[in-house]
C-alpha cells in the first residue's frame, strides 16, 4: 500500500544568533491512507515545528529543513518551491490551528473566505463556489447557514469558528489534514463536539489526519497510531491500544499518569517535574529526558538512545530496552 506521508530522518533547524539549533532532530514516521496519527508531547517538543516543516510554513529566514526527506503520496516535497507548495497546500494537504481567530480574516465574511479557497483550486463559477460553501457549512454542523455565511468571524463563538476552520480545511477534499491542537482553546463540551466532527469527516472523506496534541485523552478518542515526542525526537511510537495498555518509555508513562481519570479517585495529579530543555540547552549526547527521568542510569548521560522496535509495531528510544536487547544478543 502506498503511504500518504513518509517522513525520513527529518531535521529542522532554527537560526538563533547565527547558530543552527534543531527543534526536530532526525525524526522518521509515516501515515497510512485513512488513518489518524496522533503526535503527543509537551510544548516545545517539536510537534508544531514538524507539521510546519511538512507544510513548508516555517518562519522565513529563521526556520529551515536541514536534512531528511518528506514524501507525500510517494513524491519528495521537501525541496518544493513555494509555487509548487501552493498547488498542494489547502488542496491536497491542509491544516487547522489552535486559535481560529488568528487564522480567519476578520474583515471578510465567512462565506467569502470559504469561497476563496474553493475558487483558488477549482475552475468553477462564483455561484457554484457559494453553493459548495453552503454544503460545507452544513457538513460541519453550522446552524442557520444562510445567515451565518454572510457574517464575520467575530460574530461567532470559538466553537463555531473552529467549525468554520474545518470547513475551510476540507473545502478541497484534502487527502491529509494536519490539525495542530484543534480543540485546546475550546471548552470541554465544545472540544468533544469538534473531535466528533473531525472523526465523522475523516470517515466520510477517508482522509488521513495528523493530530497534534498534548492531551492523551484526545488521542484515546480519535487516533489509530500515536507518536510521543520529546525534545525534538520521537521517544515512542505504536498503535493506540498498545500505547494505553502497555506504555514503555518513562516519558510516556509519566504523561499517562498525568491524565485525569474518572475511574480512580486521586488527591493530586501526578505532573512531570522539570521542563523540556530549550533549544540552546539541548544535551549533545545522552538521553534528552535524563534530567526528568525516574529510571535514569549513569550511561543515559553518555549514550544517546535510538528508536528501535521492541515488539511488533512498537518502537521505543530508551537505554532500558537497548540494555535488555543486547543481553538477549539482539542488536
Ligand atoms: Fe530514562 Fe535513560 Fe531511558 Fe532516557 S534512556 S528515558 S534517561 S532510562
Ligand atoms: Mg505547538
Automatic annotation (TrEMBL):
SUPFAM superfamilies: P-loop containing nucleoside triphosphate hydrolases (SSF52540). This is ABC transporter ATP-binding protein. Belongs to the ABC transporter superfamily. It comes from the Bacteria. It holds the Pfam family oligo_HPY. The keyword Nucleotide-binding applies. It is a peripheral membrane protein. It is found in: Cell membrane. Keywords: ATP-binding, Cell membrane, Membrane, Nucleotide-binding, Transport. Residues 5-256 form the ABC transporter domain. PROSITE patterns: ABC_TRANSPORTER_1 (PS00211), ABC_TRANSPORTER_2 (PS50893). It comes from Lysinibacillus piscis. GO terms for molecular function: ATP binding. InterPro entries: AAA+_ATPase, ABC_Ni/Peptide_Import, ABC_transporter-like_ATP-bd, ABC_transporter-like_CS, Oligopep_ABC_C, P-loop_NTPase.
Amino acid at each position: 500500500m502506498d503511504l500518504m506521508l513518509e517522513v525520513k530522518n527529518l531535521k529542522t533547524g532554527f537560526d538563533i544568533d547565527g547558530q543552527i539549533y534543531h527543534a526536530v532532530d532526525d525524526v522518521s514516521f509515516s501515515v497510512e491512507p485513512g488513518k489518524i496519527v496522533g503526535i503527543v508531547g509537551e510544548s516545545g517538543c517539536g510537534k508544531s515545528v514538524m507539521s510546519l516543516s511538512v507544510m513548508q510554513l516555517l518562519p522565513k529566514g529563521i526556520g529551515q529543513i536541514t536534512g531528511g526527506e518528506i514524501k507525500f503520496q510517494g513524491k519528495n516535497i521537501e525541496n518544493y518551491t513555494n509555487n509548487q507548495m501552493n498547488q498542494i497546500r489547502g488542496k491536497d494537504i491542509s491544516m487547522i490551528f489552535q486559535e481560529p481567530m488568528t487564522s480567519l480574516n476578520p474583515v471578510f465574511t465567512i462565506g467569502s473566505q470559504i469561497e476563496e479557497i474553493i475558487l483558488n483550486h477549482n475552475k468553477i463559477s462564483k455561484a457554484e463556489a457559494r453553493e459548495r460553501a453552503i454544503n460545507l457549512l452544513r457538513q460541519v454542523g453550522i446552524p442557520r447557514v444562510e445567515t451565518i455565511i454572510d457574517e464575520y468571524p467575530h460574530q461567532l463563538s470559538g466553537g463555531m469558528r473552529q467549525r468554520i476552520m474545518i470547513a475551510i480545511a476540507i473545502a478541497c477534499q484534502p487527502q491529509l489534514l494536519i490539525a495542530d491542537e484543534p480543540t485546546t482553546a475550546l471548552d470541554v463540551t465544545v472540544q468533544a463536539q469538534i473531535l466528533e466532527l473531525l472523526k465523522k469527516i475523516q470517515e466520510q472523506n477517508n482522509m488521513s489526519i495528523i493530530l497534534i496534541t498534548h492531551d492523551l485523552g484526545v488521542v484515546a478518542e480519535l487516533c489509530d497510531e500515536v507518536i510521543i515526542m520529546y525534545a525534538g525526537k520521537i521517544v515512542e511510537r505504536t498503535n493506540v491500544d498498545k500505547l494505553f495498555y502497555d506504555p514503555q518509555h518513562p516519558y510516556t508513562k509519566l504523561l499517562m499518569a498525568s491524565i485525569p481519570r474518572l475511574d480512580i479517585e486521586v488527591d493530586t495529579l501526578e505532573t512531570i517535574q522539570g521542563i523540556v530543555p530549550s533549544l540552546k540547552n539541548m544535551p549533545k549526547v545522552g538521553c534528552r529526558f535524563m534530567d526528568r527521568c525516574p529510571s535514569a542510569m549513569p550511561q543515559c548521560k553518555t549514550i544517546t538512545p535510538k528508536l528501535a522496535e521492541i515488539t511488533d509495531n512498537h518502537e521505543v528510544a530508551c537505554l532500558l530496552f537497548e540494555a535488555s536487547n543486547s543481553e538477549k544478543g539482539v542488536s
